[in-house]
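Lab notebook page, bench 4
Experiment: in silico fold of construct C2
Operator: M.H.
Input chain length: 388 residues
Purpose: comparison with the prior construct
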Amino acid sequence: MKIKCLFLSILLISCKSNTNTIYEFDPRVLKENKASLTEIADDIIYIPLDNDFPISLIYSPKYFINNSIYLSALNAGVMVFDRQGRLIRKIGRIGRGPGEYARYYIFTVDNKNETVYIMDSGANFIKVYSKEGNFLRNISLKDYGNGVDAVEFFNSKLIISYHSQFRDIKNDLIVLDTLGNFIDKKERIDIPFTSNWLIDGGLYEYENHLSRWSPFTDTIYSIFPDLNYGISFVFGKGEHRLPKSNIDINKIKIYFNPYMVFETHRFLVFRYLYNEKVTLALVEKRSNKSYVTYLESGPAVVGNNFIGGIANDLDGGTPFQPENYFVEGNREYMVGLINSYQIKTLVASAEFKNSTPKYPEKKKKLITLADSLKETDNPVLMLVRLKD
């Protein structure tokens, strides 16, 4: 087995797996230490999504491919925008007829030919669409059970992961080719909790591998192109580790539960619930430094309803809460979202007017953007370019 170790020096407790050292980290040592964008980024770009189709809630700004932006949104389905925010096309359509999908927040894209794979979990099919949005075929998952929580196109294969706490699931993930033929599986591992109460886990791609995380297991492991698996890192949670049995669902907030994870070259980025606090953390892989911000409940823009994040001292705008990550032209970007009315409210505030961001010219551009928006306009994408 290949082992990819993530060295977090704040960490802390080491343990042995065969001849490899795997580092655990304990969220109890992560204390609030708010970050500012100038510490991690050197540019910010806003992309207002056009209003040809009203969007109330975006599940995730998922893919940035060949100057196109793929995302799924409540009551809208999967859509493609250009880099100016103009709607290019919708992929398929919502419905229960042939070639339609009823559920669509889980999807993936082949980044070479832009074939789109949408997980219609209600029907337990993956619906396959061309780049132009035309329906191509169904891939049935009925032989593998319900409970899919993520699908990723990786190395010309479909990697499909399942809810770790769903009672009747036998596999943690399966691997299919793009026609739906079975290739491989990873059987369900011992989990601390079984219930039909669901919280999604996920898959994320970084460099040459995928990583698999789940809110109810303490290990994130990597999936390599040859389909070998290796441990990425382990959460050492002490008394806040989920117990093996007899969990009190009413006390779930005291345990450590990640529900957004991805990596950049410099950081491990994750949002998690721990000890009744929702926290955004960026942990440097090569040093002791970590940035930790507590989030508060607020209006939903994406598939969460938290506000706050990394202080925006680039242009004085709203705090940045990353939701995704991509690489373009050898530069790394993190992606966030903000409601139009939040931009307008902030720009009109005394706090913004008195702010002294690093780039005054970007502050002026943000004012111009706010003036161009209506409070009821669609959300705005925020692209933050990370420092080299």
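Observations: Helices lie at 37-40, 340-347, 350-353, 360-372. The domain at 32-386 is CATH 2.120.10.30 (Neuraminidase).
Next step: discuss at group meeting.
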